[in-house]
Amino acid sequence: MSEAKPAGPHGYSAEKQALMARLKRVEGQIRGLQRMVDEDTYCIDILTQISAAKSALHAVAVGLLEDHLKHCVVHAAAEGDVDAKIKEASAAIARLVKS
Asked: From what superkingdom does this record's organism come (predicted)?
């Protein structure tokens, strides 16, 4: 069961345009991968591009996690309710490391 998500601006709000640009680049990489498979590109070349796409998506995830720590966890600490946010961040880190 997940906790209620805070409404209002999130930690990434100030960087939303940059975040969207990075995600659009990842989307383009995925479309490129589809094209490569469709065109019967050499396997290793496809795997290289998959690695690049994963790295780009990982960078987005790490940035979001950093924003979460700077904004949401700090805000929760100021209100005296940091334990739940730290637990939430730890679970997100565990998922990120596992993937």
From this structure: Bacteria
Position 16, amino acid:
K
**Range list of H helices, 1-99:** 16-38, 43-68, 74-78, 82-98
Distance from C-alpha of 76 to C-alpha of 82, rounded to nearest angstrom? 5
- Taking each helix axis from N to C end, the angle separating 16-38 and 43-68, rounded to the nearest 10 degrees, works out to 160
CATH number of 15-98: 2.40.50.140, 3.65.10.10, 3.20.20.70, 1.20.58.1000?
Answer: 1.20.58.1000
Helical axes 82-98 vs 43-68, angle rounded to 10°: 170
pLDDT by residue (tens digit) across 34-43?
Answer: 999 999 999 9
